Automatic annotation (TrEMBL):
It comes from Bradyrhizobium zhanjiangense. InterPro entries: UPF0153_domain (IPR052572). PANTHER family: UPF0153 PROTEIN YEIW. This is YkgJ family cysteine cluster protein. The lineage of its organism: Bacteria, Pseudomonadati, Pseudomonadota, Alphaproteobacteria, Hyphomicrobiales.
Amino acid sequence: MDQAMLSVVRAVEAGATTMKSVIDATGLSRLKIERALTALEKQKLLVRDGQGFRATGLPKAARPVRQCGSCNACCDILEVAGVDKPVNQLCKHWQVGTGCTIYDRRPQMCRSFVCAWLQGHLDDDWFPATSGIVVHFSQDAVNVTVDDDCPDRWREEPYFSKLAEWSLNGIRRIGNRGYATLVVSGTARFLLLGHTVVPDPTLFGTAFLPLTADTFRSWRAKSPEHLQRLHERIAEIERIRQEFGSCAIPETEDDDPRPPYRPALLRLSHHV
C-alpha cells in the first residue's frame, strides 16, 4: 500500500466521508485521492456508497501505529467554527478524564481532522502535546498553528528548517499543484517563502522574487489588480536579469507599480 492510499484510509477512518473532507485531511490532489480510492475499492479496503466513504479494515501490518493518546492539542490550539471555539482556547466540550463530551455528534471538521504528526509525516519532536505546534494539510496549504504558550516555537529548530523545506517544495511545484506554507501564532499570521518570513500576508496574495536559493523579496498585494501588476514587474525583472546579468529590485514594500516597467527598472539598474 503506497503513502497516498494509507493517508486516504487514515482520513476515512478518522471520519472523512466526502471528497472535500479527504482533501482537507490529507492535502492530496483530487486526482491522487481518486486513484487511491479506486485502488482501495479493488482491494476491498474501502466502500463508496450513498453515505460517502467507509473503510472496511486495513491489514494489520498496514494499520497506523500512531494514536492521539494524551494529546488534545487540536481541541485546544485550533479554531473550530462548528462549536464556536476560537484559536488557542480549550474547547468547552473537553473534560479532563473524559475527553470530548460530544464525540458522537462532533462537527465534521473534528471527524475528518488528522494532523501531520498522526499521519506519520513528522517525527516525535513534532508531537503536538509537547511541541505546541499543530500541522495539518489542506488542498493548497501547509497550515501551522502555534500554542500561545510558545508563540515563537515554530522559529526554533528542528521546526523552522522543516517548514522552510516544505515552503520551498510548494513554491517549486508547477502549476496548480503548488501550495503555501502558512503560520498562525496568536493573532499574528505569517507566510513562509523558504527562509523568508512574510508577516501579515494579505487576502489578495503575495508576489515574490528569488534572491538566493532559499530567500525571497516579496510584495503584499493590495488588490487583485495590484497583484497582477506586481507579477508583470517581476517578469520584467527576470527578463532584464537574463539580458544584462542583473537588475535592481525596488525597495519599497508598499509601492504600486504601474507600466511601463522596463524603462524605470533599467534606470534604477544603471543600464541606460
